[in-house]
């Protein structure tokens, strides 16, 4: 089973989430999974695949599997609500109008955008509550990262904070693929996603499929023997 980690967001900025999907999912099945995440009905979803701010294409063939597209770890899928019930004719069908697009930098500089309005009025992710929550998360990452050193043996915790995999810490710090602190792990088995590089940027060296990146709070360092040392008495006698 091949799993890919993707960032999911929407046009109204109500959703920004990191999720894991099986590449064997069809785009139709993916839409059903995205509906409770984004709040956008299956039938009105338009899914675009991005690497950073660069559009890679649309996931528009519902019969194709996700893995049939050039999808890689830490790419972003942007889900748009097309609201087809409101498109009555060629005068109201916005898909017939040439799009006016701005770069991220150009958008941030404008003062007449929804983002600028929210920022001025401290709404949504710009509210004091959201800022406090973000600060608490970053503080948790920083505190956890202080306890982690390159070369440490560790176990990686799942979303339910139970141990999932064992490995060795190879990187601790900020990355270009996503803000904040990350820990690069070389797993004992080929259960990772990369060889220590993401989107052309190398952070550490390891064999292909042995590397992965997790948040510091998902790393538990300690005296964890390597997987190939966890042998039974019978196996030791045969060596």
UniProtKB/TrEMBL annotation:
InterPro entries: CAP-Gly_dom_sf, CAP-Gly_domain, TBCB_Ubl, Ubiquitin-like_dom, Ubiquitin-like_domsf. Residues 173-215 form the CAP-Gly domain. Its main location: cytoplasm. It holds the Pfam family Ubiquitin_2. Keywords: Chaperone, Cytoplasm. The keyword Transmembrane helix does not apply. It is found in: Cytoplasm. One of its GO terms (cellular component) is nucleus. One of its GO terms (biological process) is post-chaperonin tubulin folding pathway. CDD domains: Ubl_TBCB. Residues 4-79 form the Ubiquitin-like domain. One of its GO terms (molecular function) is alpha-tubulin binding. Belongs to the TBCB family. This is CAP-Gly domain-containing protein. It comes from Mucor circinelloides f. circinelloides (strain 1006PhL) (Mucormycosis agent).
